Amino acid sequence: MRASERAYAGLVEEIQSGALAPGAVIGEVEQAARLGVSRTPMREAIARLTADGLVQQQSARVLVVAGFDADHIRALFEVRRALEESAARLAALRGDAGAFRALAADFRAAHPESGAGAADAYYALIARFDAAIDDAVQNDYLAQALRPIRAHLARARRLTRDDAARLRDSVAEHALIAEAIAARDPELAAHATHLHLHHALAAILAAIGGATDAAHD
Questions:
Q1: Neighbouring C-beta atoms of residue 215, cutoff 10 Å
Q2: Which residue has the higher pLDDT, 159 or 121?
Q3: How crowded is residue 173: how many other Cβ atoms within 10 Å of its Cβ?
Q4: Of 107, 160, 175, 213, which has the fewest CB atoms closer than 10 Å, so is most exposed?
């Protein structure tokens, strides 16, 4: 892995986990020293983070981790719906039915509410599902468009990590999407994705105090 890729991946992971919280200063020299890379690859990594919207300019010389609020979450989900519903349709038409049947079984067997380790394993399963979708759609432009959306989503997802009821519902929703793709039913796959995103948005808005606006989305 190139140094810039390694630096980018490391910073994304820390932003998503909350280790680098909104407002944290991202200094090129300091981060390069901390992650053991030179300034050129760090500059490239920070440029990618800025393009993804994970880092923003606070002043002429200061870059910080971007914050997010209810308005940011709603805007994110507007784009996410358009992209993920399209991806689900294409996956149902082009994907490997057996692979999605196996993923559906894995979702049905998941119990993320049973502990921190189980939740981590569940999020890893979702990452596998996302990767399978990307492979199935056979469209690099769509996959690339989804990448920064998922990076932002991972930050928002932490807000509902301890909501056992939401985690159980999420399992069933993902299983239904995978089963629809395996059945090669593009409209059911898109509809199941729409319902999942509607419920996910409502849960995240509730967690940050924006539940009253969820009905408008």
A1: 8
A2: 121
A3: 19
A4: 213
Query: Which stretches of the chain are assigned E, i.e. beta strand?
Result: 55-57, 63-65
For 27-77, write each residue's pLDDT tens digit: 999 999 999 999 999 999 999 999 988 999 888 889 999 888 889 899 999
Residues 11 and 45: beta-carbon distance below 8 Å: yes
Is the pLDDT confidence value at 164 over 80? yes
In this structure, the answer to whether residues 8 and 74 fall within a common structural domain is: no
Cβ 94 vs Cβ 137: under 8 Å: yes
Q: Are residues 146 and 44 in the same domain?
A: no
Q: Which domain holds residue 7?
A: 3-65
Of 180, 185, 196, the closest CA to residue 101 belongs to 180
Task: Note whether 75 and 59 are same-domain residues.
Answer: no
Q: How far apart (Å, rounded) are the C-alpha atoms in residues 197 and 186?
A: 16
> Domain tally for the chain?
2
Q: What is the mean pLDDT of residues 191-205?
A: 95
Give the residue from 11, 45, 7 showing the smallest Cα distance to 155: 11
Residue 94 sits in a domain whose CATH number is 1.20.120.530
Distances (CA, A) of 163 to 119, 120, 169, 199, 204: 11, 14, 10, 13, 10
Buried b (16+ CB within 10 A) or exposed e, 191-207: bbbeebbeebbbbbbbb
Q: Tell me which amino acid residue 140 is.
A: D
How far CA 72 is from CA of 84, 96, 140, in Å, comes to: 18, 34, 26
Nearest to 77 by CA among 180, 203, 212: 203
